[in-house]
Amino acid sequence: MDNPNGRKVMDVLEGKKFERPPIWLMRQAGRYLPEYREVRKQAGSFLQVCYNPELAIEVSMQPIRRFGFDASILFSDILVIPDALGREVRFVEGEGPRLEPITADEIGSLVKAYDAEKALKHLKPVLATVEGLRGELPNETTLLGFCGAPWTVATYMIAGRGTPDQAPARLFSYSNPKAFGQLLDLLSDVSADYLIAQLKKGADAVQIFDSWSGVLGEVDFERWCVAPVKRIVDRVRAEIPNAKIIGFPKGAAGLYEDYRQKTGVDALSLDWTITSKFGRLLQSSGAVQGNLDPMRVVAGGDALIEGVDDVLEAFGGGPHIFNLGHGITPQAPLENVELLVKRVRG
Ligand code: CP3
To answer: In CATH, what number does 22-276 get?
Structure first.
């Protein structure tokens, strides 16, 4: 079962359990690192880093050099997909992403005008990052590609920005179910093509980020999270049968189980609200990743040690990739990240 390169994250995705789990952190390349802030300042804008392979490779490598994580995640953003579809994305300093909110009519035109080749051409620099990164990484480091899940990406396209509970997208889905369904189908297809391209360029596995799963009720979760992600998984596997896929339906609570069974992902990334008992149940049908509260990394000290030990104990009995329950935040002190890595490695 061991993969020939000693990539432990891949072994865990195949169902292997380690005495000490491999570790990486969501958003590990980012603003908590002074060397990232330096590159970001020189580049001018965040998207300029995403679309410049040389800079994107550099910032992807930064956390690997500093902490020796077991996986590297491609440096990019989930919102390069709407950008590639011609729905231009800007990142406003200190405020987050901005897009022109899409209307039902515009969705119709977007679907009609969709040209898969053109979208992938826009994403070429990101694919070049994947290829270049594989060449730079230590052999034993797993390279993860990623995309946003259609629902989560759509919430930004509808509202034009981040919102606390995605009320604009929920409302839109009830008022314009047909157009919303077409948008999610389009996002599923372009995301599947994008993940396939990443895997062909050297990504070992991919993660699908559904950061806003938790705002949906049961029926909507099935319709807007499970079905589109299943469409992506099926399409990727039709092209690359052994593709390894991690799903992260953040906030899905009890629906995590449905998500695992119905989408067919290999592993689940757990947010920090998932209990150890339920997490172990999920782990009985495949690997789990997570799930330390990122605020424990900011707090450090006993709060960090206690959190790490609880996660290790909860999931040590099965296939587990140590991670946070969501991305590391800009205010996380470097010494706390060092402590975290040391504690996990024992
Ligand atoms: O290290 C990594 O994890 C790789 C790169 C990565 C980024 N974003 C870089 C980034 C990944 C995997 C993402 C995913 C992403 N992007 C998600 C899903 C995961 C999650 O955090 O929920 C979402 C919802 C986005 C959309 C997005 N990108 C928002 C809402 C924001 C603004 C909020 C914020 O954290 O600033 C971003 C910006 C962003 N993406 C930054 C980085 C490093 C900060 C931008 C900067 O440097 O100015």
So the answer is: 3.20.20.210
The total number of residues shown for the chain amounts to 346
Distance 296 CA to ligand 1 centre (A): 20
Instruction: Evaluate: CB of 40 within 6 angstroms of ligand 1.
Output: yes
* Catalytically active residues, by annotation: 27, 31, 40, 77, 156
pTM passes above 0.90: yes
Per-residue pLDDT tens for 297-337? 999 999 999 999 999 999 999 999 999 999 999 999 999 99
Q: How many CB atoms lie within 10 A of CB 302?
A: 9
